[in-house]
């Protein structure tokens, strides 16, 4: 997703949304990591 944002910034709109998208991606990665740890 971050590669898409860097290649096509006009699709997302203003660059002010980039930190929000980065935060959402980090939350998703954290969720996946916790889910994998709890699955063991």
What's the overall average pLDDT, rounded? 81
Number of domains: 1
Q: Total strand count, please?
A: 0
What is the H/E string? HHH
Low-confidence stretches: none
Q: Indicate the overall shape.
A: elongated
Structural category: mainly alpha
The percent range for helix content is over 70%
Content of β-strand: under 5%
Please tally the helical runs, counting DSSP H or I stretches of 4 or more residues: 3
| Cα-atom radius of gyration | 13 Å
The profile of the biggest β sheet is: none
The end-to-end span amounts to: 28 Å
Please give a handful of descriptors for the protein shown.
40 residues; mainly alpha; 3 helices; 80% helix; elongated
Please give a structural write-up.
The chain is 80% helix and 0% strand. With 40 residues, the protein is mainly alpha-helical. It has one domain (2-39). The longest helix has 22 residues, at 18-39. The chain is elongated, with a radius of gyration of 13 Å. The protein starts with a helix and ends with a helix.
SSE blueprint and pairings:
Layout: H1 2-7, H2 9-12, H3 18-39
Summarize the structure.
This protein is an all-alpha fold. The protein contains three helices and no strands. The chain has one domain.
């Amino acid at each position: 997703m971050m590669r898409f944002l860097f290649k096509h910034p006009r699709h997302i709109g203003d660059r002010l949304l980039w930190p929000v998208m980065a935060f959402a991606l980090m939350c998703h990665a954290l969720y996946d990591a916790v889910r994998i740890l709890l699955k063991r």
